[in-house]
# Entry
Amino acid sequence: MTGMALHAVDLIRKKRDGEELTREEIRFLVEGAAQETIPEEQLSAWLMAVFLRGLTLAELDTLTTAMRFSGEVLDHTGLGRKTVDKHSTGGVGDKTSFLVAPIAAAAGLADPMISGRALGHTGGTLDKLESIPGYRTGLSLSEMRTVLEKCGASIVGQTKNLVPADRKLYSLRDRTATVENPYLICASIMSKKLAAGLDALVIDVKTGSGAFLRDEDQARYLAALMVETGERAGTRTVTVLTDMSQPLGRMAGNWVEIAEAVQLLQGGRPALSEDLREVSLILAGWMIFLGGKAHSAEEGKRIAEEKLTDGTALRIFREMVAAQGGDLKAIDAGMGFHQPHFRREFRASRGGYFVAADCTKVGWAVQRLGAGREKAGEPVEAHAGLEMHVKLGSKVEAGQVLATLFAQEESRFAEPEQLLTEALTIGDAPAAPPPLVREIISAENKDSYLKAGHRP
Ligand code: URA
# Structure
């Protein structure tokens, strides 16, 4: 076929019929997405064909690489520190980034973290950071470099030129019900992470009722795909499968999540934030190990805890916020700076045990309170969100407050209250809370999960 003109319609048909596309064909589609020379209906049809038919590992590798090089790529030469990052597949109340980035920097690494906005029912790191008055997420690459040199960590948004193919494909996936697919999630995340020029990467793969891939076997397959893709590209990659069957920590929203993270950085140990602290230390431990600052992930975790408890991580977080224009008075005030116009208590309708949560519905409740957006580009409310007062397994009394909701308009409460009524299940018998960390998938054990394959 080399030399002959390619036509998107032929490639859609080929994938629709379950055939493997060549490198040239995949590159043609990715270039067409990045340069907007292939119309949206054809890209969407191809995405749906991939969603239904899947990709071979060779196709996935070509897709990720073509997306990675569809725009500019970062180069951290001369920084004098290894670059290590953590990425999550998306969750509710997931604020580990605000802990692990300064902890990794405190351990002598650099974390150039490029983050996203609220997506579907999941929260967005950038939206949370922008609830800090003055904080700039839209740094240029040279500004980011300056912050990295000074603080060792910088959390910013995607620039216009970083992986433009994903920008296009992602917005189409969001509108065409093609998000929840391991190949497409892998290519989307890994193309951005590899373009960021990292030495090592730790991915928090969420599983459970609040994850994009709820099924644990599917989450394992996604994890193995990301390890395979990262290692093939020369970036040490480890995935940690963590529980997302309830919000992580006790806060979900924008400012409230920053405040919870700051409380932990300040040495606070609220009982309902212990899961957040533990997951953050495990992820940071892997970052420190892969970055060569510890002999094992366990030793890395010990170093991480030291950097958290001795205040170094807090100092670095404050420096990073200040370097990116954020107001330290708000940071230091934490929940004292929380300014929702309205609060509403959500109570248990009966006594018993908190046995199950549909965490996706909890996530939608948070977004509908105003923390997320219906359409790309809409503003979000900095002080919308909720605080959970129970964890799975807790005994509850009838009428006990299960959550406090925060919103800027009173009319925002009705839908989230309904969602929480459906989402939180009180049962008669106690049930053990799910384990926080399900598994570590790395180069050593990925192959057995790759062999297990994916069920569309
Ligand atoms: N995050 C991403 O960047 N892409 C996905 O496909 C899912 C989560």
In short: Residues 216-232 form the longest helix (17 residues). The domain at 84-333+437-452 is CATH 3.40.1030.10 (Pyrimidine Nucleoside Phosphorylase; Chain A, domain 2). The pocket of uracil is lined by residues 89-90, 116, 179, 184-185, 188-189 (CB under 6 Å). The chain has a mean pLDDT of 95.
